[in-house]
Write a structure and sequence with these properties.
The chain is an alpha/beta fold. The chain has a single domain (5-258), classed as Rossmann fold, CATH 3.40.50.150. Helix content is 32%, strand content 26%. The radius of gyration is 17 Å and the shape is globular. Bound molecules: S-adenosylmethionine.
Length: 259
């Protein structure tokens, strides 16, 4: 089962963004900072041209958009989803370009820079606002995570720091993985980023439990769920990024294809 879902009601989107998506973790001057690493992993996968299509679904988006910056250039429709209305509203604020929305422009500039077109970041933000057509409710613990929304199986799924943060143990994590896999077409791609060796994180006043996983376990669980792993990368959290907002030891990135 999921960890006490009520605890997630205390998740503070702004505190979570502050903890993880501002310096030092999001330091674009330093290539070894974790956020640039995540953006490079995603950009590398998309740069092959292999991952493209009609629809990409991002599961457990939280209040963040960095994970779909590259994707928005390769999919006609990008759908964001989260369990909490507060996170969905944070995302909509950015989509409506409201004052006070979180500023993702350093992220968008960095990704455009990787593609050799730093000067086109505003056009990319516009493209993102066109491609992201919906921000919907999801619950990965349900056999139909998007219920009552009905969606044809999608071409690709991305999910970042969701499964291990929401599930209470490995058994429920694998059930949740199977639930989201049912939303993906055979041959479709799963792009997943997650925490290694983490047991908790803070999101404002609330401390949320995480299932600690290692590289071997993630590979086994994803393979058992019916995927071929194409890319697997790991990042070791340097001491200066251990800021006390969690006990993460590293981050993994994987690209896998549903068999
Ligand atoms: C650690 S945050 C990850 C946010 C974002 N994807 C990122 O990369 O930082 C975990 C997210 O899972 C969401 N969540 C909690 N319970 C969930 C559930 N049952 N189904 C789907 N998402 C859930 C939370 O609201 C939160 O946004």
């Amino acid at each position: 089962m999921a960890q006490d879902a009520d605890r997630y009601q205390l998740f503070n989107p702004r505190a979570y963004l502050q903890n993880n998506y501002t310096p030092p973790r999001a330091n674009f001057e330093r290539e070894d900072s974790v956020v640039p690493w995540k953006l490079r992993c995603l950009a590398d996968s998309f740069s092959t041209g292999e991952i493209r299509g009609q629809t990409l679904l991002d599961i457990g988006s939280g209040p963040t958009l960095y994970q779909v910056i590259s994707a928005c250039d390769f999919f006609t429709t990008v759908i964001l989803s989260d369990y909490l209305e507060s996170n969905r509203e944070e995302l909509r604020r950015w989509l409506r370009a409201e004052p006070g929305a979180f500023d993702w422009s350093p992220y968008v500039k960095y990704v455009c820079g990787l593609e050799g077109r730093s000067d086109q970041w505003q056009a990319r933000e516009q493209r993102m606002r066109e491609a992201i057509k919906d921000v919907c409710h999801c619950d990965i613990m349900k056999a139909e995570p998007l219920h009552p929304r009905v969606l044809e199986p999608v071409d690709a799924i991305s999910t970042t720091f969701c499964l291990e943060s929401v599930c209470s143990d490995k058994e429920s994590l694998e059930r949740a993985l199977s639930n989201i896999t049912s939303l993906l077409k055979p041959g479709g791609f799963l792009l997943m980023i997650g925490a290694l060796g983490e047991s908790y994180y803070l999101a404002g006043e609330v401390r949320l439990s995480v299932v600690p996983v290692d590289e071997g376990y993630v590979k086994e669980a994803v393979s058992r769920s019916g995927y071929r792993i194409c890319v697997f990368k790991t990042y070791t959290m340097p001491p200066e990024l251990k800021t006390g907002v969690d006990d993460v030891t590293g981050v993994f990135y994987l690209q896998a294809q549903k068999l």
